[in-house]
Amino acid sequence: MERPSLEIKLPDTHEEGKLYVVDSLNNLNKLNVCPDGSQHSLDEEENTGGTGENTAGSNIRNQCLFVTFILTLIVSLALVSFVIFLIIQTRNKMDQISSRLISEKKNIEELKKMNNMILKHLNQSGIKE
User: Rounded distance, CA 38 to CA 33, Å?
Assistant: First the structure.
């Protein structure tokens, strides 16, 4: 299986630039050659020299992920609880306002009735403006 070679024309760069390009090409080659699962194991072997010393780092990373997950759950629970509290408070305030509006509506209707009664009484007594 032959792959077409990549011809890269680089301008004159410093040694660091050349090393960076070579490292990038090596990483690209690893991505093309290795499947996703084995890429991680290759990186771990390079970092530890293939001796399995990475298990402690993996455990620490897993513990950090677990602690982060737990903290995220706690913060989410607190936020949800706060939102529920706000919804309940808003519902209580709306109930209070609606009961006030109903009582004010009753008062306005009573005032209209009284006004009509006064106007009828004035019309019957013959006092006109």
Answer: 10
End-to-end CA distance of the chain: 112
For residue 13, the one-letter residue type is T
Query: For residue range 58-85, what is the model confidence (pLDDT) as tens digits?
Result: 888 888 899 999 999 999 999 999 999 9
Tokens of 115: 């006004």
Amino acid at 114: M
3-state helix, strand, coil in the chain (%, to 5): 80, 0, 20
Contact 112, 119 (CB under 8 A): no
How far is Cα 76 from Cα 124, in angstroms, rounded to an integer?
A: 71
- Rounded CA-CA distance 121/84 in Å is 55
Its pTM stands at 0.42
pLDDT, position 58: 83
